[in-house]
């Protein structure tokens, strides 16, 4: 969970202009060790922000240090954004807790509350993709692991209202399990797995809704 949060932190850094706090930086260093810390660290080193941050961690530092850091990070935003684009799509597999459920591997992330594009991006960053359900048995295997109400799937009809497409395959999804009276379409162009009275089935939702949980799926080679 922590690692995922950190990945997310990196991912939203450019968009929201947030900076990692001392605590987060330390967590980043100790959690990621080499790889992803280096990615972030090189950004920080680049404008000597690292140095400021060390002082920021010191309670005896000057009182206007917050403003100074904020100013420095503002100028960093563009660089961070550029660097974010250079991030490799695949990060080391072993730091992400994908688990085997049935015959497939999934990462179930609850409580991050992302819109569809953010969820899609998060799955890509972990080397996977949003869950691509093949059939009823795959869905039935996952359901007992879920404890929230809304999870994004890899399906949307953003390009054409009548054509649902799996983001993973680029083709029509192999399996649907809609709730009665779903999909109701209109502005709802992304597909979710929704829980109503302990029944999980598909429903369409607005892609920019940001209260959703995530199921990523990943193919591991034997
Ligand atoms: C469902 O798909 C899985 C692959 O994930 C396959 O092994 C299984 O045989 C399929 N089950 C049915 C009932 O089609
Ligand atoms: C998802 O959220 C991000 C960050 O807030 C935003 O930039 C993006 O436009 C949103 N995507 C959609 C489809 O609303």
UniProtKB/TrEMBL annotation:
The keyword Cytoplasm does not apply. Residues 101-208 form the C-type lectin domain. Coiled coil: none annotated. SMART domains: CLECT (SM00034). InterPro entries: C-type_lectin-like (IPR001304), C-type_lectin-like/link_sf (IPR016186), C-type_lectin/snaclec_domain (IPR050111), CTDL_fold (IPR016187). SUPFAM superfamilies: C-type lectin-like. Residues 1-17 form the signal peptide. Keywords: Signal. Pfam families: Lectin_C. PROSITE patterns: C_TYPE_LECTIN_2. This is C-type lectin domain family 6 member A-like. It comes from Drosophila albomicans (Fruit fly). The lineage of its organism: Eukaryota, Metazoa, Ecdysozoa, Arthropoda, Hexapoda.
């Amino acid at each position: 969970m922590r690692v995922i949060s950190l990945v997310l932190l990196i991912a939203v850094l450019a968009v929201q202009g947030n900076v990692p706090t001392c605590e987060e930086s330390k967590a980043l260093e100790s959690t990621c060790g080499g790889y992803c810390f280096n990615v972030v660290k090189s950004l920080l080193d680049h404008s000597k922000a690292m140095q400021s941050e060390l002082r920021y961690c010191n309670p005896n530092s000057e009182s206007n240090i917050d403003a100074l850091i904020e100013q420095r990070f503002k100028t960093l935003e563009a660089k961070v954004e550029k660097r974010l684009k250079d991030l490799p799509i695949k990060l080391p597999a072993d730091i992400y807790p994908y688990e085997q459920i049935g015959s497939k591997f999934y990462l179930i992330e609850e409580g991050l509350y992302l819109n569809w594009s953010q969820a899609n991006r998060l799955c890509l960053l972990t080397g996977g993709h949003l869950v691509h359900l093949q059939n009823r048995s795959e869905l039935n295997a996952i359901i007992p692991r879920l404890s929230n109400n809304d999870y994004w799937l890899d399906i949307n009809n953003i390009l054409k209202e009548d054509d649902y497409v799996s983001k993973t395959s680029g083709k029509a999804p192999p399996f649907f399990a809609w709730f009665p009276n779903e999909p109701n379409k209109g502005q709802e162009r992304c597909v979710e797995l929704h829980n109503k009275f302990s029944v999980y089935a598909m429903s369409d939702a607005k892609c920019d809704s940001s209260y959703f949980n995530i199921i990523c799926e990943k193919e591991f080679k034997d």
